[in-house]
Design brief:
Blueprint: H1 6-14, H2 16-20, E1 30-33, E2 45-49, E3 52-53, E4 57-60, E5 63-65, H3 67-78, E6 83-87, H4 93-98, E7 104-105, H5 113-116, E8 119-134, E9 151-155, H6 159-173, E10 180-184, H7 187-195, E11 201-205, H8 206-215, E12 220-222, E13 227-237, H9 241-257, H10 259-266, H11 275-278
Length: about 290
């Protein structure tokens, strides 16, 4: 497949909603309470989450599920509160936290130096990024370098999109044809675009890539090894040090007593445990891949 034109991608985006009906329901301020602990004391612990990022957080009907949902519920229970999850698009999620729409962010967010200038993090995973390509890998994409001259996408506001933009610059600097990069409002939009042959590769976090491939192995596979492993953290406002310390203590306790690994194994994410907690260097590819 030759490099896709931006006009084709524009046409695809215009019908995106029709393709995603029944897959994801998104709203700027739709608040969903998930399996709250029975606790009459304490206010709810409200998390901002982009509920379109399986297996970390996503919707099954009107119910929020996923690894981050389970982790958020467990953290809340351990500090004597109940968890609520507010669905926020990822590109506006830090602004939502800063505007007091939630107490914390749990949304598969990489702890980067740029983000750490705005918020505090409590790390709980260590995750790389992966390229997802069509089954059979017809374009022979095995790395960022092999994306030159192809169309690729990722979700807006993510480090994944930053990675693609940097790869495009590298292609151009090397005198090669650039990457036609598209940012999608939701992760699921980009995967649907890949399946519909509108892009040649989709770049997302490795656990998310593994989920899409496991759900539809006839359509997708990995385009090479994992890229740029980084810690993933729960983000909190810098002036909320008390809550930050409570969340940190809860995460430490969950690793110490095995609750974290139980959640990660449930979602087949055990390879992404924090190395400091498990005493090993994580492998940023899913088990069995």
């Amino acid at each position: 497949m030759s490099l896709k034109s931006r006009s084709r991608l524009g046409n695809w985006l215009s019908i995106r909603v029709l393709l995603t009906v029944g897959v994801i329901a998104m709203s700027w301020a739709a608040t969903i309470t998930v399996a709250p602990a029975v606790n009459a004391q304490g206010e709810p612990l409200v998390f901002c989450s982009d509920l379109a990022f399986p297996p970390m957080e996503f919707l099954e009907g009107s119910e929020a599920v996923g690894a981050d949902i389970d982790i958020g519920n467990e953290v809340a229970e351990r500090i004597g509160r109940t968890a609520e999850f507010t669905n926020i698009g990822f590109d506006g999620i830090i602004a939502a936290l800063q505007s007091d729409l939630c107490d914390a962010i749990i949304s598969g967010m990489n702890n980067t130096p740029e983000r750490a200038k705005q918020v505090d993090f409590v790390n709980y995973l260590f995750v790389g990024q992966s390229l997802v390509v069509q089954a059979g890998n017809p374009e022979g994409i095995t790395s960022l370098e092999t994306l030159c001259g192809h169309a690729a996408g990722s979700q807006v506001g993510t480090t994944n999109l930053d990675t693609l933009n940097a790869a495009n610059e590298a292609c151009l600097e090397a005198g090669q044809e650039g990457i036609d990069v598209t940012g999608f409002p939701a992760d699921t939009d980009g995967v649907l675009a890949l399946k519909a042959d509108r892009i040649d590769a989709y770049e997302t976090d490795s656990p998310v890539a593994a989920y899409y491939i496991a759900q539809d192995p006839g359509s997708f596979e990995f385009g090479g090894p994992a890229i740029n492993a980084l810690p993933v953290g729960i983000a909190l406002r810098k002036d909320n040090t008390e809550l930050r310390d409570q969340v940190q203590a809860a995460i430490d306790e969950m690793y110490a007593d095995g609750a974290m690994m139980e959640i990660l194994e449930k979602w087949q994410l055990q390879d992404f445990a924090l190395p400091e907690a498990v005493g090993a260097t994580p492998v940023a590819t899913p088990a069995g891949s």
